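can u do me a favor
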């Protein structure tokens, strides 16, 4: 059976040693890790524009790293990733609805 996003976040938190009350240093490390990995995703897109070729395997690898840091930050803030995904979907749907009504 595939791992759920909440199971993954719990697992990632153990790997990253994210406790119940992470230090500012740990939160900073995770946030910078997320930003760094997002930058690597952006670099793949930049190379697509430059070379007209996408290294899909490399991009997918970096997306996995983004998810790891995101999941760790979810755990560090006591949030269930599935709940954040649901809240994000609601927010995007609300924005789309507001844009359509203009």
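np, heres the sequence
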């Amino acid at each position: 059976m595939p791992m759920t996003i909440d199971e993954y976040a719990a697992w990632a938190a153990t790997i990253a040693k994210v406790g119940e009350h992470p230090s500012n240093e740990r939160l900073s490390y995770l946030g910078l890790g997320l930003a760094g990995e997002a930058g690597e995703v952006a670099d793949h897109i930049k190379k697509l524009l430059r070379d007209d070729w996408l290294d899909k395997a490399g991009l997918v690898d970096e997306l996995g790293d983004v998810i790891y840091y995101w999941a760790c930050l979810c755990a560090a803030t006591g949030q269930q990733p599935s709940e954040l995904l649901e809240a994000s979907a609601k927010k995007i749907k609300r924005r789309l609805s507001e844009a359509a009504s203009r």
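The CA atoms of residues 30 and 36 lie 10 Å apart. hope that helps!!
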